[in-house]
């Protein structure tokens, strides 16, 4: 196990079995901890498993189908455990297997034609073979080179996905294999493995075989050795692929997967497999470098592919929620459109001339409007249109704008933006209810905006747009308003905002994002956590944060920037519903302000006691009051300060607070106001870090003064500097005595703990 401490660990069940005089492999395989013991390199267990007889039995569990009357251990558990023991990658066990030809023959007997290959055992076989290929590469490749019939048997079983993965690794179509063992895999280039894989499109009707064969060929186009890569791009291979795709008797899966290979040949980085394609955004104006011979080989059969785009001869019907498709577009037509889209990005002059001659762009553009709810089709057609407009080929642009009548089709679709009920169209609305809005308006908007954008730099496109008065009217009254409504920079809080409700007369340029001072907001947010503005259960933790550096605070500046930048800040500083620089830390009421003020004054009590004791050392008790009276004196003084009138200063406070408060015409300060009082223009009287400092008069009497640094509250010199004294012999002075000669203050009944640091004078 993982620990070997005497008295704490029990004996492993595997060790218990190994301690027996006569035990079998089945007993070990039936034990659940055998895999952990093997990974922990249990010496006694590995010495037993490395024997040829045990390795042979493990292989038989993997490659031999269990009898029909076998128990569950023989059917499921033993094959799984045997595979896991090999994939533990214990070198001595793998060495026993790969260096013994009889054991290797037993392993690859799984590929025999008279052998049944179940899906679970095929997975176990694949894992063991790939493990040998990765860990014992040289001896394994030497064995396969001496038994090249293995490659043919792998191709014959390519319909099994696990076998296909072995084939891809073996022929070097893995990005990590070929660079390390180039010489050992050179012999594979001399075989006819590519022809064997391509011929699977004609010799089999299984869709799984076609899909796996296409995936293998696509992997070869991306990662194969140079010899195989140059061979697969030859006209002979591409011609054979197109020939199999256009055979009338072949299933549609042959056409779909053959075109996937052709697309991968044109653009190896494009992911083309799967039921629905995965799109890779290509930068505007970019072209793909493809082998000219490969392109020419594909153009020979382009006319036959375009004939398959004709939907009038099909009698299939598909009912949908919005109506009826007669016929459905189908994956094979969608793959043809994708193939033409990639062919245009190559930039081949021969391909462009052939597409114009055959009218491919016009036919595809018609499909765009005939199937208004197929977004996969719309994506490819949009790419085709953009490739034509951005190309430097003038005949292609003229063909798209004039012969294909792109503007006319866009305006017609915008005018009749509901689904047609014409029974002769491929897409028909359902009877008995209102026809829905067509689903390609978004793509039409992007195509129209692209036309306007390119018209600013292309005189021919601009001249063509200006010739159409209907386009000019639609662009002014419809497209511009639609772009303004869909401009996300004018949105706030994730939803469109009615600009007229915000009483602004500025132009559209004013609607752009303002450059908020994110750094200042982040600093304010971190300072708020440092000074305990937000409530914490443990005030000591807040107190301790004051003594830390900026990078050690609970909420650092970097985290604050992430939080603030993730929010959509409004641009109206006067709007109370949006967070801006001026009111980011505004609260609903001033209740927290009063609590912090009371807490700051109440916290002066322990400070006063400590200062009084320190200052009275070495003096006569008669000077200070002596003994318990001294404590009472300090306590009374502190009570008067904490119970005194702090918030409602008559005149000086109002004047100072107005001077300290932010002005409506001034630039928002770097340190924002923490709280605002609803319905009042004056800043609230707030002492966040108030401290009571005790001083000694010349006669030895203790006094106190209020230090209100880092706040907008500043008391008058007469009130802030006057000594506060108390008489312990008059108990009633605690409630009747006033501070600095002002009127009596109401009693503050709620005390809040002060997070500020204690000071000693």
Question: Could you explain the architecture of this structure?
Answer:
The protein is mainly α. The chain has 39 helices and 7 strands. The protein has a 3-stranded antiparallel sheet, with no helix packed on it. Residues 272-285, 499-516, 533-539, 541-555, 568-593, 595-670 and 672-761 have low confidence and may be disordered. Pfam families: SAPS. Residues 700-729 have a biased composition (Polar residues). It comes from Hibiscus sabdariffa (roselle). Residues 617-634 have a biased composition (Acidic residues).
Helix content: 40-55%
Largest sheet strand order: 1-2-3
Shape: elongated
Largest sheet: 3 strands, antiparallel
- The number of helical runs is 39
Percentage beta strand: under 5%
Instruction: Please give the alpha-carbon distance between the first and last residues.
Output: 64 Å
Mean pLDDT: 73
Total number of beta strands? 7
Radius of gyration: 42 Å
Catalogue the unreliable spans: 272-285, 499-516, 533-539, 541-555, 568-593, 595-670, 672-761
Structural class: mainly alpha
Helix and strand arrangement:
Blueprint: H1 13-18, H2 25-29, H3 34-39, H4 43-49, H5 52-63, H6 72-86, H7 91-98, H8 101-108, H9 119-135, H10 137-146, H11 149-156, H12 161-170, H13 193-198, H14 200-203, H15 207-223, H16 226-232, H17 235-245, H18 252-266, H19 292-299, H20 302-307, E1 318-319, E2 323-325, H21 331-346, H22 349-358, H23 360-370, H24 375-390, H25 394-403, H26 406-415, E3 427-429, H27 441-455, H28 459-467, H29 469-485, E4 491-492, E5 495-496, H30 518-530, H31 539-545, H32 557-565, H33 591-602, H34 604-615, H35 621-624, H36 627-643, H37 652-660, E6 691-696, E7 702-707, H38 717-721, H39 733-736
Antiparallel strand pairs: 1-2, 2-3, 4-5, 6-7
Helix pairs in contact: 5-6, 5-8, 6-9, 9-10, 9-12, 12-15, 15-18, 17-18, 17-19, 18-21, 21-24, 23-24, 24-27, 27-28, 30-32, 33-36, 34-36
């Amino acid at each position: 196990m993982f620990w070997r401490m005497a008295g704490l660990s029990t004996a492993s069940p595997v060790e218990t079995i190994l301690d027996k005089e006569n035990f079998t492999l089945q007993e070990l395989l039936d034990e659940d901890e055998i895999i952990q013991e093997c990974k922990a390199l249990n010496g006694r267990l590995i010495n037993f498993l490395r024997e040829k007889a045990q390795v042979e039995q493990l292989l038989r569990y993997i490659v031999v189908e269990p009898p029909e009357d076998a128990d569950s251990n023989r059917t499921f558990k033993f094959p799984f455990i045997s595979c896991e023991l090999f994939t533990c990658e214990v070198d001595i066990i793998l060495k026993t297997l790969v260096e013994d030809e009889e054991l290797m023959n037993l392993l690859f007997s799984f590929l025999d034609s008279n052998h049944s290959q179940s899906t679970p055992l095929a997975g176990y076989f694949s894992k063991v073979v790939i493990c040998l290929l990765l860990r014992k590469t040289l001896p394994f490749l030497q064995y396969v080179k001496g038994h090249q019939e293995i490659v043919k048997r792998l191709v014959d079983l390519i319909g099994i996905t696990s076998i296909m993965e072995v084939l891809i690794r073996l022929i070097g179509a893995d990005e990590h294999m070929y660079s390390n063992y180039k010489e050992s895999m050179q012999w594979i280039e001399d075989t006819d493995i590519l022809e064997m894989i391509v011929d699977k499109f004609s010799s089999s009707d299984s869709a799984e075989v076609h899909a796996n064969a296409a995936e293998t060929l696509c992997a070869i186009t991306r990662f194969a050795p140079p010899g195989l890569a140059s061979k697969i791009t030859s006209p002979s291979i591409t011609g054979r692929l197109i020939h199999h795709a256009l055979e009338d008797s072949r299933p549609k899966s042959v056409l779909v997967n053959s075109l996937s290979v052709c697309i991968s040949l044109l653009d190896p980085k494009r992911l083309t497999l799967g039921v629905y394609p995965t799109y890779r955004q290509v930068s505007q104006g970019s072209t793909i470098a493809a082998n000219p011979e490969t392109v020419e080989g594909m153009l020979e059969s382009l006319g036959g592919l375009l004939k398959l785009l004709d939907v009038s001869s099909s009698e299939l019907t598909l009912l949908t929620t919005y109506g009826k498709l007669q016929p459905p577009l189908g994956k094979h037509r969608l793959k043809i459109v994708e193939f033409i889209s990639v062919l245009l990005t190559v930039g081949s002059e021969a391909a462009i001339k052939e597409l114009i001659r055959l009218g491919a762009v016009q036919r595809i553009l018609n499909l765009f409007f005939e199937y208004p709810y197929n977004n996969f089709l719309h994506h490819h057609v949009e790419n085709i249109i953009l490739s034509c407009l951005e190309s430097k080929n003038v005949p292609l642009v003229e063909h798209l704008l004039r012969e294909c009548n792109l503007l006319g089709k866009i305006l017609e679709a915008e005018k009749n933006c509901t689904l047609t009920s014409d029974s002769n169209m491929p897409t028909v609305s359902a009877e008995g209810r209102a026809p829905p809005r067509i689903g390609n308006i978004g793509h039409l908007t992007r195509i129209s905006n692209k036309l306007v954008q390119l018209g600013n730099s292309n005189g021919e496109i601009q001249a063509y747009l200006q010739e159409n008065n209907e386009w000019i009217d639609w662009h002014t009254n419809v497209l511009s308003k639609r772009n303004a409504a869909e401009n996300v920079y004018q949105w706030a809080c994730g939803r469109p905002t009615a600009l007229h409700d915000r009483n602004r007369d500025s132009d559209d340029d004013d609607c752009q994002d303002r450059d908020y001072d994110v750094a200042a907001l982040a600093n304010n947010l971190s300072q708020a956590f440092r000074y305990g503005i937000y409530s914490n259960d443990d005030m000591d933790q807040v107190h301790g944060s004051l003594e830390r550096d900026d990078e050690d605070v609970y909420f650092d500046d970097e985290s604050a920037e992430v939080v603030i930048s993730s929010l959509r800040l409004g641009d109206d500083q006067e709007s109370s519903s949006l967070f801006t620089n001026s009111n980011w830390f505004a609260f609903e009421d001033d209740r927290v302000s009063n609590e912090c003020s009371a807490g700051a004054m109440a916290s002066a009590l322990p400070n006063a006691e400590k200062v009084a004791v320190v200052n009275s050392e070495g003096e006569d008790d008669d000077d200070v009051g002596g003994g318990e009276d001294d404590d009472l004196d300090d306590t009374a003084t502190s009570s008067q300060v904490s119970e005194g009138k702090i918030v409602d200063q008559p005149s000086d406070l109002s004047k100072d607070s107005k001077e300290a408060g932010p002005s409506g015409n001034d630039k928002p300060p770097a340190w924002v106001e923490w709280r605002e009082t609803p319905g009042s223009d004056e800043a609230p009287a707030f002492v966040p870090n108030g401290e009571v400092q005790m001083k000694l008069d010349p006669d030895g009497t203790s006094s106190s003064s209020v230090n209100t640094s880092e706040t907008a509250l500043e008391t008058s010199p007469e009130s802030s500097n006057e000594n506060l004294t108390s008489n312990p012999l008059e108990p009633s002075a605690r409630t009747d005595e006033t501070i600095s000669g002002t009127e009596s203050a109401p009693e503050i009944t709620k005390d809040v703990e002060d997070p500020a640091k204690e000071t000693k004078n």
